[in-house]
């Protein structure tokens, strides 16, 4: 039986009369598929305060972290203590700019660091643009762009939390053990450091209070 990382499809194709090409499945060749889930999206917005209120009032999301510095206006929002953010709002969208400047990124969650390193190796193998490997303290991420320039992120959680936003570039050619050790040293030096489970308890209470206020 194939593992959860494996999917089988055929390289042969059949074209119907209307020109639609349909792949014919079989056991060859084998194409590895990542066990990842779509998790959150980041969008550029004109009115950061207004959009924050919309996601609070419409969906009951709460603010999990934010920055209002001149060079980075960003709000992280979630409705689940298992996810630091499900929607990311980035201020500073310029009036008149069309939809190609709306999407900041699409993000997918992997099972763990080993799979992130596999994503990194695959991105290099495919020659994708803008491959970046980082830790946000609360996660490890590999960023890259699809063939039409859309920014993609594949990430997994770390066991820790530090105030967001945070970004430190890491060398994903290192072993998983070395990356974990480097990240732990980094986050423990941050004044906002605490275990992820402690942060989850705090955000769970915040979500519960927000839902109660909506009733």
In short:
The protein is α+β, with helices and mostly antiparallel strands.
Describe this structure in words.
The protein is α+β, with helices and mostly antiparallel strands and 215 residues long. The protein has helices spanning 48-59, 113-125, 176-188, 196-214, and strands spanning 6-8, 13-15, 21-23, 30-32, 37-44, 62-69, 72-78, 87-90, 103-109, 129-135, 139-145, 151-157, 160-161, 168-169, 194-195. It has four helices and 15 strands. The protein has a nine-stranded mixed sheet with strand order 6-7-8-5-9-12-11-10-14. A two-stranded antiparallel ribbon has the order 1-4. It has a two-stranded antiparallel ribbon with strand order 2-3. Mean pLDDT is 83; it is low at 1-15 and 25-31.
Question: What's the Cα radius of gyration?
Answer: 20 Å
Biggest sheet features = 9 strands, mixed
Would you identify the regions where 5 or more consecutive residues have pLDDT less than 50?
A: 1-15, 25-31
Total DSSP E strands:
15
Strand content: 25-35%
**Tertiary shape:** globular
The end-to-end distance, rounded to whole angstroms, is 49 Å
How many helices? The count is 4
**SSE arrangement, N to C:** EEEEEHEEEEHEEEEEHEH
Category by helix and strand content: alpha+beta
User: In which order are the strands of the major sheet placed?
Assistant: 6-7-8-5-9-12-11-10-14
Helix content percent band: 25-40%
* Global mean pLDDT: 83
